Amino acid sequence: MYSNILVPTDGSAGMERVVEHALKTARRHDGTVHALYVVDSGSVTGVPMEASWSGIAETLEREGELALKRVERLVDDDLGFERAIREGDPSREIVAYTVDNDIDQVVMGTHGRGGLDRLLLGSVAERVVRAASIPVTTVRLDTSERAAGDSLMGRDTDRGPDERRDDHTPEPEPGAR
Fold first, then answer.
1. What angle do CA 61, 21, 126 make, to 5 degrees?
2. From the CB of residue 121, how many other CB atoms can be counted at a distance below 10 Å?
3. Which of 6, 12, 87, 166 has its CA 20 to 30 Å from the CA of residue 141?
4. How far apart are CA 71 and CA 19, in angstroms?
5. How far apart, in whole angstroms, are the C-alpha atoms of residue 129 and residue 115?
6. Where are the domains of the chain?
7. DSSP labels for the chain?
8. Is the pLDDT of residue 130 over 80?
9. How many CA atoms lie less than 13 Å away from 92 in the CB half-sphere?
10. What confidence category does residue 47 fall into, taking pLDDT thresholds of 50, 70 and 90?
11. Which positions ≥6 away from 63 have C-beta within 8 Å?
């Protein structure tokens, strides 16, 4: 049912919790974990013109490699593992990767931004939930704002208090592999 699980990462602190959640699913379904880092080309719009794009891209790709290595270190040797770096808008690239690689589920972190920040900046996780045609499970990285999202995302009783599943994610069938 969930043989290909995507874990998008930006290298944020707390990603271990997201990866562990994805690993539980992968172990249960003998699946492959795909780790994806997206070089957000839009995030460098404020960089001075003297800086070359190739230098910036190399730096961002090095950050991506480090983020992917941190995910890979957590993956069991008996599970499949794929890694990729893409460039572009993170939410679009994540959704495109799901299509290109026959992904069954996305497990991703959310920083738990709320209020004006969320209104102005939006959320990569929120855009992926809206655009993906497959289940997306979000795991909150910032536990200090745990209650902020409770009204938007339902609790899942077999998860920890800070892990949420979006409303359109189906429950696994009992006994399904």
1. 65
2. 10
3. 87
4. 7
5. 19
6. 4-165
7. ---EEEEE----TTHHHHHHHHHHHHHHHT-EEEEEEEE-GGGGTTS-TTS-HHHHHHHHHHHHHHHHHHHHHHS-TTSEEEEEEEES-HHHHHHHHHHHTT--EEEEEE----HHHHHHH--HHHHHHHH-SS-EEEEES-GGGGGGGTTTS-B-TTS-TTEEE-TTPPPPPTT--
8. yes
9. 7
10. low
11. 11, 37
Record the tokens describing residue 98, joined without a space: 């799901």
Give the global pTM: 0.73
Residue 121 φ then ψ, to 5°: -95, -25
Looking at per-residue confidence, does 152 or 36 come out higher?
36
One-letter amino acid at 148 equals A
Question: CA 43 to CA 60: how far, in whole Å?
Answer: 10
Structure tokens at 127: 């855009």
Both tokens of 25, joined, read 């699913």
Over residues 97-106, the mean pLDDT reads 97
Looking at CATH, the fold of the domain delimited by 4-165 is given as Rossmann fold (3.40.50)
The mean per-residue pLDDT over the stretch 89-99 comes to 96
Q: What tokens appear for 15 in the block?
A: 């990603």
Q: 89 near 122, Cβ under 8 Å?
A: no
